[in-house]
Amino acid sequence: MPNTYSYCGRIIKGVVLDITGVLKESGPNGGTAINGSIDAINRLYESGLQFRFCTNETTVTRHHLVNQLRRLGFTIEEDKVFSPIPAVCQILKERNLRPHLLVHKDSLPDFKDVDKNDPNCVVIGDATNEFSYDNLNKAFRCLMEIEQPVLFSLGSGRYYQEDGELVLDVGPYMKALEYATDVKAEVVGKPSLSFFTAVLKDMNVLPNEAVMVGDDIVSDIGGAQACGLAGVLVRTGKFRSRDESHPDVKPDDIVDNLAQFVDKLLQHSL
Amino acid sequence: MPNTYSYCGRIIKGVVLDITGVLKESGPNGGTAINGSIDAINRLYESGLQFRFCTNETTVTRHHLVNQLRRLGFTIEEDKVFSPIPAVCQILKERNLRPHLLVHKDSLPDFKDVDKNDPNCVVIGDATNEFSYDNLNKAFRCLMEIEQPVLFSLGSGRYYQEDGELVLDVGPYMKALEYATDVKAEVVGKPSLSFFTAVLKDMNVLPNEAVMVGDDIVSDIGGAQACGLAGVLVRTGKFRSRDESHPDVKPDDIVDNLAQFVDKLLQHSL
User: CATH class for domain B5-83+193-265?
Assistant: First the structure.
């Protein structure tokens, strides 16, 4: 029987953790571990609580991401990591869809078992430099030629920080293709309900028994709260002080970092 | 006293003509003249009617565009051509704005007199291959760094046909930057009211005394009608048969081409 804890006025049985901005800061060679996060994860393992990692990262394979985190010192298993690519591959299989891919080249191995001949849908991820005019035109024309066009977007983030600079995420390109083609994208990943639901189902906990910890006030906190989870904002990663007074999203708690979250969560065992 | 004609139940004193898709089809080396259009323009000159050319073309300078049309056989003066770049340059001057430019390199000479140091706004045009991930990030970061960000989009078209293939226009990139930055773009060019107003003012005619001829059901016809002009759709250029039953826009008339429009317009002199 897993342990439970009292936090934010709830009985918490499951924890969902964003990766980039919570466990590590982004940067070259997988980034750097955030102070106290490695130990915080180890304490979660010892707590007996269920927890999963939930990321919209699509610039690398899940396997590579887990290896990066291990090299930084984290204890982490691949089957605890939920990311949009395995989720979309499952959807493609269920719906007999063959994608035209506009994704990061380093993520392509995760699509190796997917039939990509004669595409009848488009999948876009955080393709970074692959977002050329030419490649966006190819995805656009593919959608225009399909009789019943389907567009999957691996997340809908607006931007993130990379090597100290803001860079565009997949969301703006999703909006560009939506406008050009009049096709509404299906978002796979945070903040979609089906993505959060899959994570909760894997832990066998209900939304109101779970808490999401993230650095993205809209996608992590707002998204989790909309699905019934508590949402806790960390003051690391892409956090900016104006997020604390966001007009629409009020976090259930705001903490300095993951270590402080774990301190507070584990204070009240039930 | 210029002549007037009766058409579409109106007294017409001024004509506004789109260029690409009405005078010429797009293609390499400036494209090809549409059958009957050269003669139709000459008949408009002889009619005594006022007329202007109104284009969202921003991949070349206005001077170059006029030279292309002359080489195709058209009689056309540069001061009769209204395009977004001279319009935005005027706005930048009036509002003391210094742009970061994301535009086609062949259009840059039209910005030569504009102060581009220490930018306090962003101007995007139909930049085609210049719409790289890197260049879109630069425009994005510029908007994020400006205290009161202003984004000008030279038109808002979704796509157009080039060498037989559909290609993305500036509109999708406008939507991408709007989503990423939460800044609403100011559209300069068709279908903006200020753009049509400048054209009408130059002819000294009122909106209900004017007719716009174009191949874009939304931007040309819908845009002109929203500003009080009659809108006539030609079955050339990017016209598709489904445009005749567009859910929102009902043209005042639909003609096979510019020559047929001029035939019908000049039938009833007042």
Answer: alpha beta
